[in-house]
């Protein structure tokens, strides 16, 4: 049994929001795309961020704080790629992790996040405009890199999840190569996503990468995946040990999912 991420039209998404009683006030439906491909358009994100003050993909920091603090300490230098208008960096800062750099491709998101952080007194968090496929940082300069939902965007037009389009593969690999490059030896990449292990492992497990891979889950009715990849800890082929999990029960209409996470709704197929 497997599930594939699909993207319903905006009208259907509105209907689902009404069915589950999601708080429309916290996420206005006029920022939702008319099609999945819009998520790959930088202009969509500029327009969206100009209207929207805050949105958290795949739950806010409080839902996975117990997981992330196992891998980050106050001395860690942390890079968040694709920060958007998330408040993840503020949550980390509140736990004493202050060497934070946030990046996003959208100049609108970067400008608004800078203004928000300054207004709240966060003077030491760096926010930069940057392309995650070509990060403007030196080699081996971060202890931790985090992405939350950013990689999922690259898969919205990927076609068959078992055999994604070449264009999708190229972009995902470019992102992973950049993250691997900027991580220090023994550095950690944390990926928070809907992507199940059998869809992510072909990318994370490429022989060019030296990291090990393990995963955990969080969430109640619908589980999100929390991947941890440790640079320089890859084991020899055939001896690779990854943390196994019981596959989560899937409830596409469970109120555990926040409003726009329904765009990543599930289509259950027998495999």
From TrEMBL:
Transmembrane segments: none
Pfam families cross-referenced by the UniProt entry: Methyltransf_31 (PF13847)
GO biological processes: methylation
GO MF, any single term: methyltransferase activity
Listed Gene3D superfamilies: Vaccinia Virus protein VP39
SUPFAM superfamilies xref list: S-adenosyl-L-methionine-dependent methyltransferases
Matches recorded under InterPro entries: Lys/N-term_MeTrsfase_sf, Methyltranfer_dom, SAM-dependent_MTases_sf
Keywords per UniProt: Methyltransferase, Phosphoprotein, S-adenosyl-L-methionine, Transferase
Record's function text: Protein-lysine methyltransferase that efficiently catalyzes three successive methylations on 'Lys-36' in eukaryotic translation elongation factor 1 alpha (EEF1A1 or EEF1A2).
Name used for this protein in its record: EEF1A lysine methyltransferase 4
């Amino acid at each position: 049994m497997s599930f594939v991420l699909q993207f319903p039209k905006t009208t259907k998404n509105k209907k689902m929001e009404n069915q589950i009683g999601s708080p429309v006030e916290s996420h206005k439906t006029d920022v939702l795309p008319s099609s999945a491909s819009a998520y790959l358009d930088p202009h969509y994100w500029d327009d969206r961020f100009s209207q929207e003050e805050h949105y958290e993909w795949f739950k806010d920091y409080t839902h996975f704080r117990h997981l992330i603090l196992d891998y980050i300490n106050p001395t860690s230098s942390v890079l968040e790629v694709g920060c958007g208008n998330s408040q993840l960096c503020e949550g980390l800062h509140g736990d004493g992790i202050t060497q934070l750099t946030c990046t996003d491709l959208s100049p609108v998101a970067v400008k608004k996040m800078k203004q928000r952080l300054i207004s709240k007194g966060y003077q030491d968090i760096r926010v930069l405009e940057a392309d995650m496929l070509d990060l403007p940082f030196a080699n081996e300069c971060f202890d931790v890199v985090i992405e939350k939902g950013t990689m999922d965007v690259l898969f919205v037009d990927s076609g068959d999840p078992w055999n994604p389009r070449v264009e999708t593969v190229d972009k995902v690999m470019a992102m992973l190569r950049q993250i691997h490059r900027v991580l220090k030896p023994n550095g950690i990449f944390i990926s928070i996503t809907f992507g199940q292990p059998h869809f992510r492992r072909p990318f994370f497990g490429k022989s060019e990468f030296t990291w090990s891979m393990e995963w955990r889950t969080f969430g109640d009715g619908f589980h999100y995946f929390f991947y941890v990849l440790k640079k320089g800890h890859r084991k020899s082929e055939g001896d690779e040990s990854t943390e196994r999990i019981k596959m989560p029960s899937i409830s596409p209409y469970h109120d555990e999912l926040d409003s726009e996470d329904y765009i990543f709704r599930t289509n259950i197929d027998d495999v």
